[in-house]
Amino acid sequence: MDLGNQSTVTEFIFVGFQFSESLQVIIFVLFLFAYLALLVGNIFIMLTIWHDPRLHYPMYFFLAKLAFIDLCYSSVTVPKMLVDFMFEKKTISFNGCIAQLYFFHFFACAECFIFTAMAYDRYAAICKPLHYMTIMNKRVCIFMAAATWVIGFVHSNIQTTLTLGLSFCGPNVINSFFCDIPPLILLACTDTTMIDAMIIANSGIVTLGCFLSVLVSYVYIISSILKIRTAEGRRKAFSTCASHLTVVIFFFFPGSFIYTRPSTRYSADMIVSVFYTVVAPMLNPIIYTLRNEEVKSAMRKLRGGKVFVQ
Q: Cα–Cα–Cα angle for 133, 299, 29, nearest 5°?
């Protein structure tokens, strides 16, 4: 597809973060630290799971995939944002903008389905413990992991194709720090009512569909936990789910705020975008390591017996 034929605009300008020069430096350092922490944390989780045979079962198989997706997902937007802190005019080419939008939605959709797969894994472990290894066998795990990439590919192609159906002839100032559909729609020169509705419907099917699947899984999980007779048994069962439930909330709630409503010029959108592109992927490895003794033990082993997390 010739992207150049879709618009007379050849580049977009990001509004970015409007702070004083001294505050810009502080914000840059904070975001740089967050991104480096995100990279180190997620890479270390992948290495830990790969290195320790005790973690070679479904729950950690999906956790490793989540860490990889988080790393890619944030790397689509954050490096460009950090570079833009150095320049007063923050530009991106039209083709570069579309590419960023495409990969952002690809990895975001894949993350939605990894969360769903992880919820199903916890459902099988707690509600069907005697049949867990049969339900979550190697073939099923590989199929579910592959499905996340296939569905992400389909979703991002739909979203990108719908966006390319719009005409951009000016203005070209994006009220954000990266290329995403809601702020781009506001710049279109043509009527966006139908395309806006289709984009919301597509995002809604993915976001709400995955969230409802996770919710149903946890209804069954909580019901099963409450039937456990001992308080210690209930505590252990819930502890295996608490980390996953926390990161699901951090991911789905901000995403729903942005993508399941008509496009607007809310200034809060940029703050919400920072949360699910930078903060949540950075917190995911921290949340999992703080609440998971097996992961902490494996990390200590990987570091030659030294305590990595207290």
A: 120
